[in-house]
Amino acid sequence: TLREQVKEIRSLTDEPFGVNLFVPSLFEADPERIEHANMLLGPYRRELGIEAPEKVFSFEESFEDQLEMVLEERVAVFSFTFGFLGPELVGRLKENGTTVIGTATTVREGLRLEEDGVDMVVAQGSEAGGHRGTFLGDFKDALIGTMALVPQMVDALSIPVIASGGIMDGRGLAAALVLGAEAAQMGTAFLACEESGAHPEFKRAVLEAAEDETAVTRVFSGRAARGVKNRFLIEVGEHEEELPPFPIQNTLTKDVRAAAQRQDRPEYMSLWAGQGVRLARSANAAELVGSVVEEAETILRELARRLT
Questions:
Q1: Is the pLDDT of residue 7 over 70?
Q2: Which one of 88, 102, 241, 276 has the minimum C-beta count within 10 Å?
Q3: Omega prior to 244 cis, within 30 of 0
Q4: Are 244 and 30 within 8 A, CB to CB?
């Protein structure tokens, strides 16, 4: 599937693009935890009219095979999260002409990625939507805001830093550049765009949510991720410490999330989004990029004028 997606993008553009993958980590498939998780999911499956899946023997895809595909296809940019690759794999990618970007939620993680030889590091602030990239220590200790994380990461690293988390418009981009970042990574801002593949109910939830209506949760995938609060997040969240880790919980909830999408039931979807949701707007991607750049340039020119 990944190879087909790469070929499809290449058929549409000659410009460089990136592939992003999750780095796997060790996990324990505890039968009791799995059984308990399935018990917790039972009422939601019944409400959605789906049967509990048969026993699952595999919980993750082959990262090694996916990475080999990235190498074979000579993808221009490869980014990853949840861990580090090690200098050997980073070296193979760079020898292949690929720009390599890691994700860090603390300075310590950023330094570890730099040691491996990555070209750039995404500094993921606690405001960011989606999965937390923490791989050294507990994610609860790595919920550092973008404004605090970026300048500390910039000072500690000798490679470019990309700011991420809560950046929704030109003001956020300008702020990231002033803090020393070389670029900004934006996700939530694009969710409601016309080109976005997000479910219509997902888009609506993002456009209607407020800054205090997201939470970091493990209920959908077993790994900490920020999304808009809904019934599933709140109710299953009461049992979060009892759930199996990623990728087991992610596999177990897959049928519930898929059925919720088919039935237009946002209360059971994983509505990943960051704390900047109130700034989300419906537009096409080109308009959004253009307005972000124009606004940032205007702000930076005005700042320069004030300081002279």
A1: yes
A2: 241
A3: no
A4: yes
- Which DSSP string corresponds to 97-158? T-EEEEEESSHHHHHHHHHHT-SEEEEE-TT--EE----SS-GGGG---HHHHHHHHHHH-S
Give every CB contact of residue 97 below 8 A, 6+ residues apart in sequence.
Answer: 74, 76
Angstrom distance (rounded) from CA 228 to CA 266: 10
Q: Are 295 and 176 within 8 A, CB to CB?
A: no
pLDDT at 108: 98
Round to whole Å and give the CA distance between 296 and 186: 14
Burial of 167 (0-12, 13-18, 19+ CB in 10 A): buried
Average pLDDT over residues 4-31: 94
Note the pLDDT tens digit of each residue in 51-107: 988 776 566 668 999 999 999 999 999 999 999 999 999 999 999 999 999 999 999
**CA dist., res. 110 & res. 108, Å (int):** 5
The first and second tokens of residue 286, run together, are 């080109």
Mean per-residue pLDDT over the chain, rounded: 96
Residues 6+ apart with CB under 8 A from 14: none
pLDDT band at 125 (very low <50, low <70, confident <90, very high): very high
Q: Is 48 helix (H, G, I), strand (E, B) or coil?
A: helix
Please identify which residue in the block is written with the tokens 């809904």: 230
- Going by the DSSP 8-state scheme, the letter that residue 278 receives in this structure is G
- Nearest C-alpha neighbor of 113 from the set 140, 82, 143: 82
Q: Report the candidate in 62, 103, 57, 94 with the shortest Cα–Cα distance to residue 75.
A: 94
| Structure confidence at residue 87 (pLDDT) | 97
State mean pLDDT over 220-249. 96
For residues 274 and 263, give the distance between their C-alpha atoms in angstroms, rounded to a whole number.
25
Percentage of residues of the chain with pLDDT beyond 70: 98
Residue the block writes with tokens 């960051």: 274
